Amino acid sequence: xxxxxxxxxxIVEKSPTGYAYHEMICDKAGIPxxxxxLEVNKSFEDMTGMKGADIIGKTVTQVLPxxxxxxxxxxxxxxxxxxxxxxxxxxxxxxxxxxxxxxxxFSPEPGTFITCVTDLSHEYRQIRDLKQVSQTSExxxxxxxxxxxxxxxxxxxxxxxxxxxxxFNRYNxxxxxxxxxxxxxxxxxxxxxxxxxxxxLIGRHWKPDSLSLRSMRQKTMIRFPSLFDFTGRYLxxxxxxxxxxxxxxxxxxxxxxxxxxxxxxxxxxxxxxxMSFEKDTLVEIYARQIGLAIERNNAEKTLQKxxxxxxxxxxxxxxxxxxxxxxxxIRKANRVMEQLYSQSMPLNGKACYQAxxxxxxxxxxxxxxxxxxxxxxxxxxxxxxxxxxxxxWLEVHAYPLLDHQTGAVDGVIEFIRDITWRKTVExxxxxxxxxxxxxxxxxxxxxxxTDDQGRVVLMNAVAEKLTGxxxxxxxxxxxxxxxxxxxxxxxxxxxxxxEQVLRTGHIVELGNHTALISKNGAEKPIADSAAPxxxxxxxITGVVLVFRDLSERKQHLAEVEHLAYHDYLTGAYNRRYxxxxxxxxxxxxNQPLAIILGDINGIKMVNDxxxxxxGDLLIKEATALIKAQLSAGLILARMGGDxxxxxxxxxxxxxxxxxxxxxxxVMNQYVIINDEKEHSVYLSISFGCSVQNEDQSSLKDLMIxxxxxxxxxxxxxxRSNRSHLIKSIMGTLFQKSPREQKHSRRVGxxxxxxxxxxxxxIERVNLISVAASLHDIGKIGISEAILNKPGKLTAEEWDLMxxxxxxxxxxxxxxxxxxxxxxxxxxxxxxxxxxGYPSGLKGKAIPVEARIIAVxxxxxxxxxxxxxxxxLSEDEALHELMRCAGTQFDPDITTFFVDKVLxxxxxxxxxxxxxxxxxAEQSEGH
Length: 926
Prior knowledge:
Radius of gyration: 44 Å
Strand content: 15-25%
Mean pLDDT: 79
Number of strands: 30
Largest sheet: 7 strands, antiparallel
Distance between the termini: 21 Å
Low-confidence stretches: 420-427, 905-926
Helix content: 40-55%
């Protein structure tokens, strides 16, 4: 045991998980008000910044005075663990230590608790920084087309990089210069920097050399050991040294902001001295996000310019132009149209055939109707009617407006122009706008665009990551080479979606349970769809493929499904699954169905004596043993608490009864239930079964019948099981403290000798012998450290020790065999003068058996080794017994015990022990 103890101590000390052992402190009302540090390991010191030498023996309010002001009530939380035996696992921010921790807390013994701590501060700060990156990116994207907040960009980089100064610079390829557009950092430090440089940082121009520019195109991040190495010849070494010294910086990091290989700008990070930069990935992600935001902002500005240009073209074109709704009413017309048909003004809201030719119905070959029906451009030559007379011929071109998401026709654009006109800049802009919007709307997922032959044209970053193909390598490859998708269940390759879209012209979605196989063989579940890209004539010019990774969603659904149908403690099915399975199996193919119910005997005694943790372990062991007896196909569920259920299909009463008897027989055995696998508890389970009759009984009926059998069998099983449990508990106690085993046997022998000398009947002799042997069974709930402590107990430890008579009585009263001795055991530390415990009984109010045990217990304690003292001699112990007769002990029983049991006349022994060795209250020992 000592060897194991040292081994476990070494493991705890070397564990990367923080470990601390605490003692809970309660106020007079028994409410937790503080706790004391008893033991910590090195990892705990590293994670909290508190040294064991500084905190061991101190309370938490002494070590962390501000803990009471925390939003989270640490003392109450741990008090529930220490006093109720509840095990807790949670993640919580410590305001006193300014760190996030994951904590697992459990109580090895009442009044104490152990915390296993993992420092999550780094992960939480990463999450915080990622949220900040995401928030800033969203804010920048919301400014599309407007002026970007460069100061916000620099401030965010300062926060996530832990730099001292951050400069954000934009690169102008025309001038080959970088210009600082924003700076972040402490205002005084920025002011000092400006003073040293002799000019403002904002607006300062920097001209990188060709080598630096080439490095920026190739790498996202470049690290320089010093500021001078970074600036090269643009700043004198003396200036760099001054900046380094005054600002307290050293390492300088350049983070390139680019789109593909085109440099847009960069961040300059001046890092504090003596600090290791560890934000590479996060900083690179942020730089890419900024590059994307700037690029999209530029694209939006271009789009706005295009829209403005389109409207200008619409109004300034020399030919007539109008937009029709699908019912042929005019939505908008340009000034040329208004001039051509001034007699019909206003044009908006009128049908085109009414405004153009004063007709009551559409023209016979209306190009707008043809365009709506075919989704393709159409044209016709028509007469120009002015003042109800023909004044010329016009060629009318009608182009359908297609919704880029649904493909439905939303209207028609008509051009009324000279026949020499063939195409218009406006329509080209419209086609480009539609392609741009299609791509833009898909940025959040993986996007692959192909040409009309199914060859890859472009991929976004998400598509590159999921497929494992860089765009440079994938471009021009057939889509089936880059986008390898299979059915998860059959492993068969899916049909080519792009080929289907090119063949049918329709949007196609991939079926469920499909997986993408990346270039390196990695497999991810996905959902995707493919849509055609059309030109202004409605012809398909390519396909856009949009897909997303479903891994997290699939894993989450699997976890939810598992939790919905499985017991959290044992891993077996739960009652919900049991009931659903019965309903699913309740058909002619499986009938008659049978159920077996089981109920662990004496689980309350295990919980009361060994703690709920031991009870949980017993339930887990019981589950494993039951599973081992069941053949494949049988359903086992934990129905709640200490109850189990089994479903049998195509069963008979004989088959169900045989399995029931087999289970009950196998379950009656000692099982190892503690974490260290050193102690055992007697396991007994009562089972009952029920089989469907010809009327096909419902689950409710079967449950009632089976439970009735369970309770009948429990009546017969409880008695022997509880006796076994008593033996298990005593065995566990003796294993914790072999001294207690020897002590119990000797006290039993003394008491048996006393009652025989008193000429008691054999039944009473046996009664007091058993009571004496089991009088300390309640010590099972006291820690081994207290039982074997090499020194006097503290006040708190002595309070715990004095609870064992009541606990002993509680355990024994739960059994039929030992119920009669519970009151004897409860009173064996009461004193003749009423000063004892737990109830302060006095004189003959104390059961005589308890008074006999008290004398024998005290004598044995005084004459044998204790961890905190050497034993007394026989003469000294006899004198001490007689000295305490009439106060601590019954005087008659004490005299009788000394004379008849020990065979000594106390009158002859008083001179040998004239001086009291122990005070009266200590003669009991631990």
